[in-house]
């Protein structure tokens, strides 16, 4: 979820080996009694971008090799869920509760993967062709919807009604976006996306505009935002009527209260922390917001440090 095409293309060149952690389940019983940590260290060289949760565990993807890392912030259990492979990329990630899957956006690879959330095994892959940056995604009962930061469309994996089945690769399609949304040439456009009732919400990084999207027709309507700027908007997280917009280069998270129709939003809080270093996305669990720091301004090496920062939740 970066700000320019050159940064996106560079992701594929940043393939390094992440230092492994102990296997999941290595936490101790005494860890459960400890307060929630303010900071959770990731493997060195991990190059994180996306984060999601199943309400108990946090899952973080790797730009370096597409790997998936997991941690339970209450018990301290942590480890690599899927080691990743050279040439793979994990940008946005989202948890599918009905299927117990992790859906992963492949950025410049133009692909979406589905992983078993318990074993990390790749269950399915869907390709949308070259020339796209499949950035962030969200799962609804009808499908998986991913932003393309270079175009005016969403990548879509339609989901069958039965939760024990996945669609064939041929089911992958794109949804043209019409209405208020217009991509800015040679810029990073649609980025974070989240479901909101029967709608989708997505932020346009280059100018900070927020849009409501009809997931069936692709018609977009700009959301009127009061009291906040959303330029450099990256990951989105929603809890009830509160939408959290991570502003990566600004090192802050803006909390907005949405109206019932999702056509207007008003600032209720701005979350800051000295530990934030280009946060990319955030996930809410254990009554806290957990922001992953992508550190895009720091040279990525196999020894570069990365971490998750705990933030408070906003009250409307």
TrEMBL record:
Organism: Nocardioides jiangsuensis
Record bears the keyword Signal: yes
Entry superkingdom: Bacteria
UniProt name for this protein: Superoxide dismutase
InterPro entries in alphabetical order: WD40/YVTN_repeat-like_dom_sf
Signal peptide (residue range): 1-23
Keywords from the named record: Signal
